[in-house]
Design goal:
By secondary structure, the protein is mainly α. The protein is built from 5 helices and 2 strands, in the order αααααββ. A hairpin with a 4-residue loop joins strand 1 and strand 2. The radius of gyration is 22 Å and the shape is globular.
């Protein structure tokens, strides 16, 4: 019995170098992506921190509105990058709770008397999403278990 790989008529069989292995990037690409993501996150935190004056202490809107726009734009950018990287984000608690936070912020329009409390709750929820255990963040509400990789979707 002969091996098909070694008797191929046009030469020897060579599998694709990355076949069956995770997508790899160069160290330079990794650092550029990591620094870009960290910069976006830092801008988001800065925008949230400065705009909190408007929600917490009724500071004149003209003083904090641009920071609020920065917080929202950087937040949407981070959310878009997460969804682009993995559609699983949409059914994991980290994604679901992000949409809950957005809804809570939107509710300030109808509940302005509670805006400080809502804002504080959103910030606390953000800490649990960002720094909670992976089992919590990666929990899929659809699968009712932790989902990390696409190969686990069949469960």
């Amino acid at each position: 019995m002969t091996d098909k790989k070694s008797t191929h008529q046009r030469g020897t069989y060579k599998p694709h170098p990355n076949k069956g292995q995770p997508y790899t990037i160069s160290e330079t690409q990794f650092w550029c992506q990591r620094l870009a993501k960290t910069t976006i996150r830092a801008l988001h935190i800065l925008g949230v921190a400065v705009s909190s004056a408007g929600f917490m202490f009724a500071v004149d809107k003209a003083l904090w509105i641009n920071w609020w726009v920065l917080a929202m734009m950087s937040g949407v950018t981070m959310m878009s990058l997460e969804i682009y990287r993995s559609k699983l984000w949409l059914i994991q608690l980290k994604g679901i709770l992000t949409f809950v936070k957005l809804f809570m912020l939107l509710s300030i329009i109808w509940l302005p008397a509670h805006q400080a409390h809502i804002y504080i709750t959103v910030i606390l929820l953000s800490v649990f999403i960002a720094h909670g255990p992976a089992g919590l963040r990666h929990y899929s509400i659809w699968h009712r278990k932790r989902i990390d990789e696409k190969k686990q979707l069949n469960g």
